[in-house]
Specification:
Length: 462
């Protein structure tokens, strides 16, 4: 064994304690760390020849790279839809690396059984039935891709062809209908060979909405003359967290032949709160569902889940035809359900957080985040230089400059807010207007943090 590696093995408990102490200092200082880092990054260095050992690597990281890392795990990072890592989920994530389980199959470890238990808890959390089976994937993009890959195989089944064997060309043109699809849906269609241009926009409701007009969706389906299609519904749009009427869309199945995929990446968490659960009524009728856990469940990157009613089609798409890995059975191993063969135990941080805080603890995070978003929205509405572009429906505040909200001015405001180190929001484009959006999904965020965000926004928009 290389002498430096042998020394690290001998000193492993000491090295882990050093890493623990360093991480504890970094996490404790999140409130003081700049929320975003816009400064110059270190230049590249050559690959080390001899190496410094783990202790030297930690010291070098602390010197060169740690100062430039953002405070995205902290309470005032409101860009994209970014959660943090609850203490329990961070504990689970560390143990995930310590155990280093490959959750491709169930042989020789209970790790797969833990993933199945976690999936059953999440299925219950989101109001899905036992008809929905699932698997952990890396994020919402892969979750949407898996769901639409199963939909693609379903389209082949309707036409009497096997897409997994014959290729997507056997299908002919595919129709994918949606009102306000996330950009990852178009990306998934490109990856799957269906094509970005096959995503057909359906008009949304009037009155500053992003929810699909169900009557117009019905008309679009009617125009297909019985040809099966895919409908991508939204449970929480990115800009204004609008929700399609899932129950009404599902009812259209009585007249039309389509696969219903629901993108509930973060909006699915509305199910946790009695005040907002009505927004996801009908989710159980979906043929496939996407939920992103490193958003509102506040587990570390990367973790998402996908659910489907047609695991048989999922196995047809993703099975690995290799005897040494094990062929699919009635309860297929996870390597037959997702694009990956080798899989990290992504379920463990979620298992830890759900065990530690339960449904009630995670409901409190959701309800507090919604209350804080509304608090910020109400205060922004009173600022003459700013205006809300949509009501605060759940956890996102979408706003812009009151006068001349051109792209450069809006992006400059975003840069100034980020450069202050006090907050981070992301630019967007909504309703023909360049805007900013503040997304609340971090378990740490408080009223005091929200007020600091408000002060940073208003100070730089003046």
């Amino acid at each position: 064994m290389h002498p430096t590696l042998a020394d690290d093995l001998h000193r492993l408990p000491e090295l882990l304690q050093s890493a623990r102490d360093f991480a504890a200092r970094e996490v404790s200082g999140l409130d003081e760390r700049p929320v975003a880092h816009l400064g110059k990054v270190p230049g590249p260095e050559p690959l080390p020849v001899g190496g410094t050992g783990a202790e030297g690597a930690l010291a070098r990281f602390a010197e060169r790279w740690s100062p430039g890392f953002s405070g995205s795990a902290g309470p005032r990072y409101l860009g994209f839809v970014t959660g943090g890592a609850t203490p329990a989920s961070l504990t689970g994530d560390w143990l995930t690396s310590a155990y280093d389980q490959n959750v491709s199959g169930s042989g020789g470890s209970s790790a797969s059984a833990l993933e199945r238990e976690t999936l059953s808890w999440l299925r219950e959390l989101f109001g899905l039935s036992e008809a929905h089976s699932g698997a952990f994937v890396s994020g919402a993009t892969v979750s949407n891709t898996v769901g639409l890959a199963i939909a693609r195989e379903w389209l082949g089944e309707r036409q009497g062809v096997s897409v997994s064997n014959e290729g997507v060309g056997a299908l002919g043109p595919v129709d994918v209908l949606s009102g306000s699809p996330h950009s990852s849906v178009a990306k998934a269609l490109s990856v799957l060979g269906i094509g970005r241009d096959r995503l057909r926009p359906v008009p949304v409701l009037s009155g500053n909405r992003e929810a699909v007009d169900v009557e117009r969706l019905a008309a679009a389906l009617d125009a297909l003359d019985g040809r099966p299609a895919v409908v991508v519904a939204n449970a929480g749009t990115v800009n204004t967290v609008d929700f399609d009427d899932l129950r009404a869309i599902a009812a259209l199945k009585e007249r039309y032949d389509f696969w219903l995929h629901v993108d509930a990446a973060f909006g699915g968490f509305a199910a946790l709160s009695p005040s907002y659960a009505h927004l996801v009524e009908g989710l159980d009728a979906a043929d496939s569902v996407c939920v992103d856990l490193h958003k509102w469940l506040n587990v570390p990157y990367d973790a998402a889940v996908q659910f489907t009613r047609r695991q048989d089609l999922q196995v047809r798409v993703f099975h690995n035809a290799s005897p040494y890995l094990g062929l699919p059975t009635g309860d297929p191993d996870f390597l037959h359900l997702t694009p990956e063969n080798s899989r990290r135990l992504r379920a463990l941080p979620a298992w830890f957080s759900l065990t530690a805080y339960g449904r009630d603890g995670h409901r409190e995070i959701v309800e507090r985040n919604v209350a804080l978003a509304r608090r910020l929205g109400e205060r922004i509405a009173e600022v003459p230089q700013l205006r809300l572009l949509a009501p605060v429906r759940l956890n996102v505040v979408c706003f812009t400059l009151a006068d001349d909200p051109g792209e450069e001015r809006v992006r400059a405001l975003a840069r100034e807010i980020a450069a202050s180190g006090e907050a981070y929001v992301t630019p967007t484009f909504y309703g023909g207007t360049h805007a900013l959006r503040a997304a609340f999904s971090n378990w740490r965020t408080s009223e005091a943090d929200t007020d600091l965000v408000y002060e940073a926004v208003t100070r730089h928009c003046a």
